[in-house]
Amino acid sequence: MIAVLAACGAAPVGPGFYRVERGDTLSSIARSNRTSVQNIARWNGLTNPDAIESGQVLRVAPPANSATAARGADRSSGSAQASSGSTASRGTTALAPAPTAAPSSTIALVWPAQGTVTRRFDGANSKGIDIVNVAGTPVVAAAAGSVVYAGDGLRGYGNLIIIKHNSDYLSAYAHNRAMLVKEGQTVAQGQKIAEMGDTDSDHVMLHFELRYQSRSIDPARSLPPR
Fold it and tell me: Which residue ranges does the record annotate as region Disordered (predicted)?
């Protein structure tokens, strides 16, 4: 993800983001946002630039203090047309389905917060798990990686942190009261990255998602039993 997370329903997205519509290609999105296909793929952790879907939310502007902010526009006219012309999948909803095949690689996670799991992953209405505890409960990185997003630009997620762990996996931590890391920062597994809160939520909780090649998967399969 580097922010491939779809917000709930069809709510507007924040500045610097774009919700994929039917018929879109990555090159057309790049052209309309005056950047390059390579930039969008990198900012969103897209291992397969052709695999975009209707309803997906993509970052189309560089993260704060990114060097690509200065050079992205200069490269957009040529490189924006370099990607394949495949279109976004027709007939999909704003919430992309979980992959049908099991991931070809695995990742070992630690629990991102202490608390009670009140909602589990189902791949349709729930794209992750909800962990409930008191405000201020520490939120930690489920695995080591690099912070690729820290902000509140995605409606429905509140203060959101996204960590890229490797070329296949990233994790998302939503509704935080406080965010303790910045974009571009490297974090260790178990490092405190936020405090649990209720931003863009009607109660205090951590909404935690795991993505494999930009698609949501059940994080419980990679978390230790407890």
Answer: 63-99
Q: What is the pTM of this model?
A: 0.61
My answer on whether 42 and 133 are in the same domain is: no
Residue 183 and residue 124 share a domain: yes
Structural domain tally of the chain? 2
Does 105 fall in a domain?
Answer: no
Instruction: Give per-residue burial for 188-200: e unless 16+ CB within 10 Å, then b.
Output: eeeeebbbbbebb
| Tens-place pLDDT, residues 151-204 | 998 888 999 999 999 988 999 999 999 999 999 999 999 999 999 999 999 999
- Residue 158: how many other CB atoms lie within 10 Å: 17
- Give the residue among 175, 146, 172, 170 at the shortest CA–CA distance from 161: 172
The answer to the question of residue 43 being in a domain is: yes
Handedness of CA 199, 154, 56, 1 (dihedral sign): negative
Contact between residue 18 and residue 154 where contact means Cβ atoms under 8 Å apart: no
